[in-house]
Design brief:
Length: 387
């Protein structure tokens, strides 16, 4: 059999176009809806089909079955554990990270929308994961830490980043203070990601070096802050990917779009991953699946989405409150910077470093021209996976 000869440039162009063609989300009718709350803000998988989700409107952690959606399978009310002041008890939970055998959770550490002080939002705490015959459940671990912002304001390395001024402003005001991300680093630290402020137009990350000790009552130890060029956006969530990170970026205020970046943890320019099909969603959390590489559950903060003609967060019956999720499959990360041939170890194979990499001068984010994310709606990423 003879084959027609195709010019190399035409073949290469066809391959490139196939690689960058954006995937679209499946129809909304195929996506289950989670109920009991609206403002999903952070999450961590406990098993292949169970995810623990925080809500920034109350202090309850809820465990959902991603195969079915609907009501929570279990709940953990944190009010007593967090030792809150009676007035304005909301912690404004915003970030979560799995580290060793614990999940760490963090409040926004900001004021309320009117700029009034809300000390209860200054909380960092941990929950353990208990494996039972009835499935995993969460239990408080250690004690809540409430001095993290004080530690940051007292650290000379952060003095020029405007945190003192930010702490006096509403969280979504220009230059306000709003923590929204928490991420485990390879060396056992936690990276605290700020939605606001964005010093010099860059996103701020502050390492917490001793999270386990902090939630046992010891003073927090901080690392060198890093500024990341995300096109003026702040960090809405951040998750580990091998020896690097994925950053869900969004506006510091109410208006603007969302972008997804891959960052190697240094001052090198992050690269953008093209994601389409999230129209109508308000991405607030990026939750990596524990068994399927590259697969992430994006949780949507649906507090302002209409339910029965009114914003979801104003619905009085908790059973009628709801939020949505959508799966995205991300392309594999390329070789480490400076290893164009790919001969070096893959990021997931590189040994953890006991010291943070030497920062390089920040560079503008690289706009993606590579593979885009594949997007799919819930249900389960793999119905065959079990606890």
């Amino acid at each position: 059999m003879r084959f027609a000869r195709v010019p190399f440039w035409r073949l290469a162009a066809a391959i490139a176009l196939a690689a960058v063609a954006p995937a679209r989300a499946a129809g909304p009718d195929a996506a289950p809806v989670f109920s009991g709350m609206c403002d999903a803000s952070a999450g961590v998988f406990l098993a292949a089909d169970l995810v623990a989700v925080a809500n920034d409107e109350d202090n309850v952690l809820r465990i959902y079955d991603v195969r079915k959606g609907g009501t929570p399978a279990k709940e953990l009310d944190l009010d007593a554990f967090l030792r809150l002041e009676e007035k304005h008890p909301e912690v404004d939970l915003e970030g979560a990270a799995l580290l060793a055998d614990r999940i760490y959770w963090i409040g926004s550490h900001g004021r309320n929308k009117d700029g009034k002080l809300r000390p209860n939002r200054r909380r960092l705490f941990a929950t353990g994961i208990e494996r039972t015959d009835a499935g995993p459940r969460l239990a408080p671990a250690g004690r809540a830490y409430s001095a993290l912002l004080d530690d940051m304001l007292a650290d000379a390395r952060l003095a020029g980043l405007g945190l003192k001024e930010a702490s006096a402003l509403p969280p979504k005001a220009p230059g306000g203070l709003n923590i929204e991300a928490l991420c485990a680093a390879p060396d056992g630290a936690l990276l605290v990601g700020f939605r606001n402020p964005t010093p010099k137009g860059k996103a701020l990350v502050v390492p917490l070096l001793n999270p386990a000790a902090a939630v046992e009552g010891r003073r927090a130890e901080l690392g060198e802050p890093q500024l990341i060029e995300l096109g003026g956006l702040g960090i809405r969530d951040m998750t580990r990917e091998g020896q690097g990170y994925l950053i869900l970026a969004g506006p510091t205020g109410e208006e603007g779009g969302f972008r997804l970046f891959r960052w190697d943890g240094t001052g090198a320019a992050p690269s953008e991953i093209a994601v389409e099909g999230l129209e109508g969603y308000s991405p607030e959390a990026l939750v990596p699946h524990p068994s399927v590489p590259g697969r992430h559950l994006v949780l949507s903060d649906d507090g302002t989405r209409p339910v029965g003609g009114v914003p979801c967060k104003t619905v009085r019956d908790p059973r009628a409150r709801q939020f949505r999720g959508v799966w995205i499959d991300l392309p594999a990360a390329g070789p480490p910077a400076g290893d164009a041939a790919g001969s070096g170890p893959a990021p997931s194979q590189a040994p953890p470093s006991s010291t943070p990499p030497t920062p390089r001068p920040p560079q503008p984010p690289a706009r993606s021209s590579g593979p885009s994310a594949s997007i799919r709606s819930i249900p389960s990423p793999n119905p065959g996976l079990s606890h």
